[in-house]
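User: Hi! I'm working on a homework problem where we have to compare a predicted structure to a textbook description. Could you give me the structure for the chain below?
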Amino acid sequence: MTTPSVKPGWRRLALMLAGMSPCAAERMIEQIRDDDPALADWLSTQRLSFQQILKLPQTQLALLIGQLTDSDLLLAMRGLSSVDKQVLLAGVSKRRAQILLDELQAMAPVPKREVEDAQARIVAVARELESEGRLTFSDEPMIS
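Assistant: Happy to help. Predicted structure tokens:
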């Protein structure tokens, strides 16, 4: 994938897409893809954020967390609110959650960049699961 140089207005467009429902944003990106595939690819990479991962249904979040290393999960949780930490930990067993919380409390301070890198790795895993059809970022209800 070629990364286009970010032109004025592209970030604004990405922000506008972020404010749309996931289905509407995806339809818009596909329409853009016809005229500018590189821009559409860039917009797709901007579409998914760590905060969106926290909004996944619990079953999908558990699937994602099962693919993560404890070190990435611990780093990603640094600086999150207690509510957001609980959202992430709801996807693991009570024993693993307690171990992670204990390790988190014992951790020394880490540079913000390490936290952001861990969150980016988690987003990358989420994208991979989405491309495999195992994870869905959609505003449509899931049917089991």
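For your comparison, note the following. The mean pLDDT is 83. Residues 112-131 form the longest helix (20 residues). Good luck with the assignment!
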